[in-house]
Amino acid sequence: MEKSITKTNRAWIEEQAPEMEPQRQFYYMDIAKQLIAEREAKLGRKLTYYVETFGCQMNARDSEKLRGILETVGYVSNDSETSDFVLYNTCTVRENANNKVYGRLGTLGSYKKKQPQMLIALCGCMMQEAHVVERLKKDFRFVNLVFGTHNIFKFAELLVAALLEMDEAGKREKRPKMVVDIWDGTSEIVEDLPIQRKYRFKSGVNIMFGCNNFCSYCIVPYVRGRERSRDPEDIIREIQRLVADDVVEVMLLGQNVNSYGKGLTPEINFPELLRRIENIEGLERIRFMTSHPKDLSDELIAVMAQSKKICKHMHLPLQSGSSRILKAMNRHYDKEQYLLLVEKLRAAIPDIAITTDIIVGFPGETKEDFLETLDVVKKVRYDSAFTFIYSKRSGTPAAEMENQVPEAEVKENFDILLKEIQSIATQKANELEGACLPVLVEQMNEQDASLVTGRLSNNATVHFPGDASLIGTIVDVKLTECKGFYYIGSRA
Ligand code: SAH
Ligand code: SF4
Ligand code: F3S
Fold first, then answer.
1. Which ligand is located closest to the Cα atom of residue 331?
2. Which ligand 2 atom lies nearest to the CA of residue 219?
3. Which residue from 125, 132, 289 has its CB within 8 A of the most atoms of ligand 3, so it is best to mutate?
4. Which residues lie below 8 Å from residue 43, measured CB to CB, with a gap of 6+?
5. What mean pLDDT, rounded, does the chain reach?
6. For range 325-334, the mean pLDDT
7. What values do phi and psi take at 122, rounded to 5?
8. How far is the CA of 477 from the centre of ligand 3 (A)?
9. 218 lines ligand 3 (CB under 6 A)
10. How many other C-beta atoms lie within 10 A of the C-beta of residue 279?
11. Residue 254: pLDDT above 60?
12. Per-residue pLDDT tens for 433-464?
């Protein structure tokens, strides 16, 4: 780029931009690099960034992609919300996720008053809701950049737009306009953009985006769009590159990994994808999330049972144990079918850990319905479970349902459920005391420098004596003591 970037040549920048992705984004990364370098020269220091992720593993992976771009254009990471660039990658699955973001924005606004050069950006699921963007425009006008889930691949381009807008507003001595770009959906999947991983030895890998299930309580299909699977070749290539870069464990990510492959030619399903990933040399462990019970096939169970690399862990969201409520939730399975799946899993893989998600207080849930859920919990004996109080999401069918359950009753049931889950989880964890099992060492222990911390195949945490040379390796560890949710061990 010969010209320095000014208002007069903004049109020129756009004119020169390649149409094709990802080339277009690399072009904008070059421009952003130049803009950042100009700012650094003026300030006489590096520019810093801070990214905070709300929500699920999909968002965590998206944040790694955003960081990849920020690092490429010259920002340096730091841990402070007073950085030059602050980005919240938001979640809207429950109301409290939204409230958290609004609360934090208030604080950011006060930082920005003192440091007007700060660039504040918001992205992620919450931004896909029109009422959120309206509120931002009204109450949080200091936000510089807002984009959604479908155009996250355009981050470099949007960043350039926000940086240029800041420069131009500075010249006009006006507040920069909020750059807002939200799409309704996309069928596009852009590959090969930079990624900055959080962990050296493990990584999430998207295998599909979006969701078609429309569970009646859930907002995800509205904010993440229709289900689309990545080409298996792209997935394999990504994992091969990760393995060449020291990764030994991958977590395959999708809202419903069991329906992977729909719409792809040649045809492929999730078990077949797993078989291909299993063959990648150097890869040691494969995890995946999330499995919808309605699509969990016998073929998948068989592949898991035969595999040497797939971890012995299945996260199988139950949501409710009442067949009546499951129907109202649009889950497409009933209590008996769910229990049968668990039986099949345990028959094929006896030491499998099973975890789940449960919602308490779905509209119309009676005490009898709740007791059905409790019954499933006692029968399955989950290794752990996430429990959620039903949260009304506007735009979903459940939000329109009558008989929203009174708060006090929900709270009472929630506490009963939590107690039961914790008691079973502790008993189950104790059953492994004394066992000798492989552990992937992930990091030094945060409190005690003589210990390292790693995970079992079933995802439980183990702390044991060791040094940094073990990080990224899999070693056999004897679980000498169970501490409820984690183990203390020693090298076997
Ligand atoms: N695709 C995954 C889950 C994504 S959301 C699946 O189908 O299992 C993660 C969890 O949030 C869900 O499993 C559900 O238990 C919970 N959840 C989703 N919407 C909710 C709502 N409106 N209120 C409370 N919990 C909700
Ligand atoms: Fe939401 Fe259901 Fe899709 Fe999971 S499967 S993301 S709970 S709609
Ligand atoms: Fe939240 Fe979006 Fe994940 S709503 S749970 S961050 S898909």
1. 2
2. 1
3. 125
4. none
5. 95
6. 98
7. -130, 140
8. 35
9. no
10. 9
11. yes
12. 999 999 999 999 999 999 999 999 999 999 99
Ligand 2 pocket, residues with Cβ under 6 angstroms:
211, 213-215, 218, 220-221, 255-256, 292
Q: 218 alpha carbon to ligand 1 midpoint, in Å?
A: 6
C-alpha of residue 142 to centroid of ligand 2, in Å: 34
Nearest bound ligand to the CA of residue 330 = 2
Over residues 352-397, the pLDDT tens digits come to 999 999 999 999 999 999 999 999 999 999 999 999 999 999 999 9
